[in-house]
Amino acid sequence: MDKLTFKYPAVCIKQSDNSKPLIMFGANAIEIEKWAGIPQKKSFDVGSAETSGFQRTENTKRLKQLSSFYENEKNVVQNNLICALKNIEGGSVSFLSDNGITGEIVIEFPNLYTASFETLFSLLRASLESRLGAIVVDKNTTAYTSLKSKLDELNDEDDFDEPVDSQNEDTEQESIIFEETHLDEFLLDVAIRHELLKELSSTFIEEHKFLGFDRQSLLAFLLPITLVDGQHRLKGATLAARNKANDEAQDLAIEKLEAGECVDNIEEELSLKYARTLPISLLMEEDPKEQVFQFVVINQKATPIGKSLLGTIISTSLTTSEMEAVTERLQDSGIAMEDARAITWAARNPSSPFCGLVERGTQSEKKDLLQWNVMGSLIQIFKELKGGSLYHTKNDYAKRWKEKYLSESSMISSDNTKDAFEEWRTLNGTWRDFFIAFWRKVKDELAQDTNESRFNYWGNTRKSNIFNKISLTILAADFFKYLVTTKTTINHIDEISEVVDDWLEDVNRAYFDVDWDLKGVKKDSTGIRERWSENWADYRENPERLPQVKSYRSAKK
């Protein structure tokens, strides 16, 4: 495979004795696109593995605004594109200098643009395996056979654009989830496709996509430099250059043809001619955790990204060891690392009743999912044992149960309240089994997930009476109230199902499966929250009759 080489005058800056060098230089925007990958966070289909990238998907409106800005040649953007190294086979990025300060940056790498899909998948697989360890694809698993079957069904080139659900089997996925990292899923998706490509005959005609993976997405992980921040600035600049090139390409093509000259690549030549030179800050660091750290800090300190996407990025871009190594630095920078991991775990673990029902910040997800911060507040009640208050009262029953009965529960080994709580609340602590056992039982008793038109449907925050912030919080708080008032300790997780039965004794299982006539009601308002809370509490005292439907529309004053 031939190689591509780019060279630019550069300056080296070292901010401290212990920091990696920063190489400052300028480059043509069209050329930057050729050697800088933009690893975006996206899913190839709902339920399938996400890429391990950390860049947001493109904002079309912002790209158009930046393109218009760049088309005025007097306009200048002073912000550097933030880049880092990517270790790829056959690639190198070197700073050549006689004095260690001024010199030349040399970027060299194989011409991946002419590489086969099999080569691209092979390189990406090797890159991921260098971080996670080698993987052997079991060709008898559902993940493999379903994709192979899908491949066999392809009859024309348009089929390659179809997204494919490559969901792993439950046993495989659960072990991955409990490792608190989802790069394994991405690696498995890549490895399966790599094995399938190796089986294809030589007559197979490659297209721009292969089973949901497009060529550009693969290249984003294989180019020698990673764009950590500034993708919209770069793409806005290239869009402006190509727009101008398109305007002149036809006239110039006619002139060249009349002169007997070749017109191949004329638009690319004009784009290079009109493209801006953009300033670049290249950190000579290829460690993935450092790159994610830089991205998160930059975006949280400037224009914060949504918490849902931030949590997804943190939990799906790093291996477990990489995550542990950077956790303290992220926390020192004000990033709630452990919270993000806990929420992602609850939202993706197949044993969790919230699996696939919590927003993650990706564009492919469906609407009406449980908001990221709502999932966080529910987890806090169980993990931190605080916030377990009914909306119309001030008593924190989760906190009270922790203080009185946690250390007395045999499911915790320590009989000291402080030590028992530390054992309980760790990321892999007992709270997780407690959390899942409780909500699975609640779902089984009070909700259903088969008919979305029912009012107790588990999965649509807008339509469901139970699957929303208010009702879920009320149920959690009332359960801890029950534990406190009955002085209940939990000796084993298996006991929770029976305890929930006792708690819900005499409760009409259709409590939430009633039309509360909530059209136009702002559910998450103080008065409505307190009314629903009071309705539930009053009903628990006298469960002979359900609350009047009209009361759910009436805010408590």
Note down, in words, how this protein is organized.
Mean pLDDT is 81; it is low at 44-50, 155-181 and 301-305. The longest helix has 28 residues, at 231-258. Strands 3-9-4-10-2-1-6-5 form an eight-stranded mixed beta sheet. A two-stranded antiparallel ribbon has the order 7-8. The chain has 557 residues and is an alpha+beta fold. The protein has helices at residues 29-35, 60-71, 117-132, 142-153, 170-177, 183-199, 215-220, 231-258, 266-274, 288-301, 307-317, 320-332, 337-348, 372-383, 397-406, 417-425, 430-446, 469-485, 496-503, 526-541, and strands at 3-13, 22-28, 36-37, 81-85, 92-97, 102-110, 209-210, 213-214, 225-229, 277-283. The N and C termini lie far apart (74 Å). Helix 10 packs antiparallel against helix 11.
DSSP helix fraction:
40-55%
Distance between the termini: 74 Å
User: Quick one: biggest sheet?
Assistant: 8 strands, mixed
Q: What is the strand arrangement across the widest sheet? A: 3-9-4-10-2-1-6-5
Q: So how many helices?
A: 20
- Stretches where pLDDT is under 50 for at least 5 consecutive residues are 44-50, 155-181, 301-305
Structural shape: elongated
Radius of gyration: 28 Å
Mean pLDDT: 81
Strand count: 10
Structural class, from helix and strand content?
Answer: alpha+beta
List SSEs in N-to-C order. Answer: EEHEHEEEHHHHEEHEHHEHHHHHHHHHHH
Report the β-strand fraction as a percent range.
5-15%
